[in-house]
Design brief:
With 284 residues, the chain is of the alpha+beta class. The chain has 9 helices and 13 strands. Helix 3 links the parallel strand 4 and strand 5. It is globular, with a radius of gyration of 19 Å.
Length: 284
C-alpha cells in the first residue's frame, strides 16, 4: 500500500461507483445529485481515488469527451478530510495527461479557479447561476413550442452540432430518458431551438438551452416552467444580459458565478450567440 495518500492509484469509475460519487459530493457540502452522476458516468469517463481504509472515494472527477475537438471536465471533488494535500492537482494532472492534445473546458468556482490557472487553464467566459420559482410577469413570449418527439431527434442533433461546435450525439440522445421535459421551438416548420428540464434535488435544471435568439430562449423556458412543480435553476452565459434580466424579473435570483475556462484552445467552439445554457456545467 502506498505510504502517501497523494501516491494512491487513480482508477476509472463506473456506474457501480455512483453512490460513492454521491457520497463524495455530500462530503463537500454539495447535493448528492445521483441523477446527474448517473448521466455523467454513463456518457463520460470517471476517474477516482479510493480511500485505503475502505471509506469510499477520497477524490473523483468526470470527463465528457466530444471527440478530438473538445472534452469537458466536471465534478472535481476531494473529500474534506484529504483537502489541501495536492490530491486535486494530481487528479487534474492525470486528466491532462490522459487527454493530451485535446482541448479541455470546465466551469470553475472561485475556490477552484486558482488551481486550474496553475495547470494552464485560462478564463474565457463566465456563467451566472440563477434559481427560484418562475412566475411569468409581463407578456408571454411569442414563440411556438411543443414537446419534442422521436421524429425531431435528427433536427435537434443537427442544430446542436452547429451551435455547440462539436458532435454530442451521445449526450443529446440521452435527453428523452434523462429529462422530465424536452421541448422544441419552431418557426414556419423549421426548428429554431430546444431545451430540456431535468430534476436535480428540489429544482428543475433548464439545460441545454439552444435558441435562435433571446425571444426563442424566453419562450422555451416559459413553456418548460408551465409543467414545473418546483423552482427552476439554470446557468446562463453572462453575455446574454437580456435573458438574465428577464429571468430575474420572473422571480429567479442570482446564486453564483462560475468562470468558464479552457485549456489548449482560446475559446469554446460553436456559436455562443445561440448557446444560452449548458446541459450541466459538469459537461460543458
Amino acid at each position: 500500500m502506498p505510504t502517501s495518500v497523494a501516491a494512491l492509484p487513480i482508477r476509472r469509475l463506473t456506474l457501480d461507483d455512483l453512490h460513492s460519487c454521491a457520497d463524495l459530493s455530500e462530503d463537500r457540502g454539495w447535493p448528492r445529485e445521483e441523477h446527474k452522476w448517473g448521466l455523467l458516468l454513463s456518457a463520460g469517463t470517471g476517474y477516482g481515488i479510493d480511500d485505503p481504509q475502505g471509506k469510499g472515494l477520497i477524490a473523483g472527477c468526470v470527463v465528457t469527451s466530444y471527440g478530438p475537438g473538445l472534452s469537458a471536465v466536471g465534478m472535481v471533488l476531494v473529500a474534506e478530510r484529504h483537502a489541501r494535500q495536492g490530491i486535486g492537482k494530481r487528479l487534474m494532472r492525470h486528466v491532462l495527461k490522459e487527454y493530451e492534445g485535446t482541448p479541455l473546458t470546465l466551469h470553475a468556482t472561485p475556490n477552484g479557479q486558482p488551481l486550474y490557472e496553475q495547470l494552464g487553464f485560462a478564463t474565457t467566459g463566465r456563467a451566472e447561476m440563477v434559481r427560484g420559482p418562475f412566475m411569468l410577469s409581463g407578456r408571454t413570449p411569442r414563440v411556438s413550442t411543443r414537446p419534442a418527439t422521436a421524429d425531431d431527434l435528427q433536427a435537434i442533433l443537427k442544430l446542436d452540432a452547429e451551435v455547440f461546435g462539436q458532435d454530442r450525439t451521445h449526450i443529446i440522445a440521452r435527453l428523452p430518458a434523462f429529462a422530465d421535459q424536452l421541448r422544441v421551438a419552431e418557426d414556419a416548420g423549421a426548428l429554431t431551438g430546444f431545451a430540456a428540464a431535468w430534476p436535480n434535488m428540489d429544482t428543475y435544471v433548464v439545460g441545454p438551452l439552444i435558441a435562435h435568439n433571446t425571444e426563442t430562449a424566453k419562450g422555451l423556458i416559459a413553456s418548460l416552467a408551465v409543467e414545473a412543480d418546483r423552482p427552476l435553476r439554470t446557468d446562463i452565459d453572462v453575455r446574454h444580459k437580456e435573458l438574465l434580466t428577464w429571468l430575474k424579473a420572473q422571480g429567479l435570483e442570482s446564486i453564483a458565478h462560475n468562470a468558464v475556462m479552457t485549456h489548449g484552445i482560446p475559446a469554446l467552439p460553436g456559436d455562443w450567440t445561440r448557446r444560452f445554457a449548458p446541459l450541466t456545467v459538469a459537461a460543458g
